[in-house]
Amino acid sequence: MPESVLTLFESLVGAEPPHDAPVLFDTACVMGGSIAGLLAARVLSDRARKVVIVEPDDLPKEAGPRPGVPQDQQVHTLLPAGRLWVERWLPGVSREAQDRGASLVGPDKQFVGHDDVRQVRDGVDHRFLAIGRPLLETLVRDRVTALPNVSVLRARATGLRYDDGAVTGVRFAGTGTGGRGERAEGVIAADFAVDAMGRSSRLSNWLAQDGYDQPRLERLEAPVNYATALFERPAKLAELETATVLQLFTPQYPSGGVSVAAATATEGQQWLVMLMGYGDERPGRTIDEFRANCALLPAIFGDITSGDVTRDVVPYHQAESRRRHFTEAGRLPARLVGMGDAVASFNPVYGQGMSSAALHASCLASYLDSGADPGEAATEFFRLQQVVVDAAWAVSAGGDAARIDAENGTEVPEEVRRQRRVMEQIVRAALVDPAVSGAFNNVSYMLRHPGTLFDPAILEKAAAAVEGATAG
Ligand SMILES: Cc1cc2nc3c(=O)[nH]c(=O)nc-3n(C[C@H](O)[C@H](O)[C@H](O)COP(=O)(O)OP(=O)(O)OC[C@H]3O[C@@H](n4cnc5c(N)ncnc54)[C@H](O)[C@@H]3O)c2cc1C
Asked: How far, in Å, are 93, 127, 242, 307 from residue 108 at the CA level?
């Protein structure tokens, strides 16, 4: 792994908003008003006279579910890297989230277990935000749309307009709800456009129709079944704010089909509790099944789900992880980038999606700062973004590919087998060795690149820790 990739990743995590950035665009149009779109709009608000977010959903004033984000009832945490970035660009969001009942979780209020072993503390005070997804989006949206040059158009983006190989506008169709000034369809003149339309983005199809290259779509089967319910948070667990348990597929631990369980103390004095199973495992369709599965987990999950149910089980299925390889596309229009799930969407259990979107926004800021000619395709942006996507993909897809190969008995090359053995050793050592735990957490929290785990000093500690644990 070249050192430059590791340092580039860290510089994207640490990037600050620019001071006195020159205005580069007249109108930037962001398609999609969810997390990725809002963060793109924040970056562009420093670089364009006007930023228009095109979003078909009626965006609720108060935090609540909406159809364009069907996963928003599931447990969501904003990892430390994403939170730090959001905090730098939209200062005060974490404080406001806490004032509204979300938890800013530090190491002293977490329980992390693998099977029945509790992970050792790494002694570092990283904090992540445990919050309902709709509340987080509302807090971010309120701040971004309060910027004087940012507005929202309630419409569906339907295509792009170009001139001489560059985007000059975004086509839209109104959502048909009436209202002053609404037009059935039209074009927003824009000299920069962002695709932040999530997994269902049709940008690739538009590009192909319009004579450009379609970025290659890579898919990795990762069929996950989520079940999430809400419970009253009893006073007896006041000192705990999150609990996560991973089942390491060891037959001696009956899991009721649960591979991962997570609980976060969230707004309204509630526990948001998630059970996840792979493939055919459906970890609790009714509250009775849900509680029965929790009873097979470490005792803490029994306590967490002992309060009254405040929202019934909501299931969610996702079949695969996906990424689009923009760096491989030969001919792309200028003045266009993609961000968030529209570009890469992972097995959600690693909690990387929103933090990835924040780091893509960081790539956008670096790209706009780089002096690259906006009249050319945004190759430099896609190069930076690939560093972030590769890092997140290595964490989530690595585990899924190993699981699929093990299930299918697939022969894998020796080098891949070696890397997997090393990763397994690091995961096991992270349970008992604070230094390995720290290195592993930094990668899981997206603060550092996964390549840092292959530092010889970490590998040596991991081998010694596993040997010690086995001997003991
Ligand atoms: C079960 C589950 C659990 C998850 N847990 C976590 C977690 O713990 N932590 C984490 O960081 N991430 C998590 N994620 C991932 C996270 O939800 C996504 O990564 C994140 O929401 C991506 O944001 P986005 O803005 O890219 O896309 P989305 O949130 O999918 O938003 C896309 C937006 O585009 C709009 N849109 C669609 N079509 C058009 C159009 N034609 N024109 C204009 N707008 C359009 C939609 O209405 C929507 O507002 C989880 C995902 C799932 C499925």
From this structure: 22, 10, 10, 23
How far apart (Å, rounded) are the C-alpha atoms in residues 291 and 313?
Answer: 11
Q: Ligand 1 centre from 321 Cα, in Å? A: 13
Q: Are 139 and 78 in contact (CB under 8 A)?
A: no
- Residues composing the chain: 472
pLDDT at 179: 47
SS (H, E, C) 179-219: CCCCCCEEEEECCEEEECCHHHCCHHHHHHHCCCCCCEEEE
Task: Please tell me the pTM assigned to this model.
Answer: 0.94
The residue that leads in pLDDT, 351 or 466, is: 351
Among 35, 226, 350, 355, the mutation site with the greatest number of ligand 1 atoms within 8 A of its Cβ is 35
- Ligand 1 pocket (Cβ < 6 Å) reads 31-37, 54-57, 68-69, 71, 74-78, 156-157, 196-198, 200, 226, 316, 318, 340-342, 348, 351-355, 357
By most ligand atoms within 8 Å of CB, the mutation choice from 30, 71, 446 for ligand 1 is 71
Given its phi and psi angles, is residue 330 left (phi above 0), alpha (psi -120 to 50 degrees) or beta? alpha
Atom number, ligand 1, closest to the C-alpha of residue 202: 41
Distance from Cα 258 to the centre of ligand 1, integer Å: 24
| Overall average pLDDT of the 446-467 stretch | 92
Lowest mean pLDDT among 312-316, 317-321, 399-403: 399-403
In this predicted structure, the answer to whether residue 115 has a pLDDT above a threshold of 80 is no
Q: In 3-state terms, what secondary structure has residue 224?
A: strand
Quickly tell me which residue has 């609720």 as its tokens.
60
- Looking at the predicted structure, is the pLDDT value of residue 177 above 70? no
